[in-house]
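Researcher: I've been going back and forth with a colleague about how YicC family protein might be arranged in three dimensions. Neither of us has a model we trust, so I'd like an independent prediction. The organism is Microbulbifer harenosus, in case that matters for your notes. Sequence below.
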Amino acid sequence: MANDKVRSMTAFGRAEVNYSTGTAVWEMRSVNHRYLEPHFRLPEAARALEPKLRELLRKNLNRGKVEMTLNLKANSGEVTGLQINQALVEELVRAAMQVTPESQPLNPLEVLKWPGVIAEPETDTAEQARAILDGFQQALTQVVDNREREGAELAGFIEARIKGIGEQVAKVRALLPQILQNQREKLKTRLQELLEEIDKDRIEQEIALLAQKADVDEELDRLDAHITETRRVLKNGGPIGRRLDFLMQEFNREANTLSSKAVVTDTTQAAVELKVLIEQMREQVQNIE
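Model: Here is an independent structure prediction for YicC family protein. You can compare it with whatever you and your colleague have in mind.
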């Protein structure tokens, strides 16, 4: 099934479908997992349907650990529907009379408990299978809908952090010319004070090298590129969790480089704020399909 929405991997679904002799009750729980890992708990009557159920699941979900439980509840309380095996009852009575005196008659309720005395209503297996599959699809649809609702919330959370990262990048970029100039003047003054006898051209070369090391323009460009890519991935939707996880690693790499190159308090503070925002996003990304 085509999917262009961001989805969480956490959800719950429940469905009940009635058929002539009972009710099929499905419960589904989905949590985070690296791959799609289904776990079915099925009664014997539904074992033959498991391959089809797995196929339906794969068409609707891409990742997550999914636990699915089916209970088949037989209809009860319909006295008019009871069918007594009269021949078996008579056999039981004759056998009992051989081992117990007539003064101790059989308890009718005990006779009814004997296996086979009350005939179970026959189940239309085709009807039951349709009810099982219908209930499975209903519960699965609930799970998908819940995943998409939570996924939309996660996408909004990430977009807010992306906006914060963009603001920090813009802040450092605006300060960068002044940061580099201040660093250059600071280094030049210190070198001139300490090493008046050294060739001024050599001093300029050293200053240029140090300034180059302090230049974070390339890191800022890459952060901008990651922001653009993250927004593109969120917009396209689908199973994007792994792609976002990779982008979080790239964000973190640039933030660490920015921190290592920081030469003024403003840059250091921006790098710290970036790391906080990236970590908040990374935690939420773990829950995206």
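Researcher: What would you highlight for our discussion?
Model: I'd start with this: The helical segments are 50-60, 86-99, 108-113, 125-194, 200-214, 217-236, 241-261, 265-285. After that, consider the following. The chain is about 60% helix and 15% strand.
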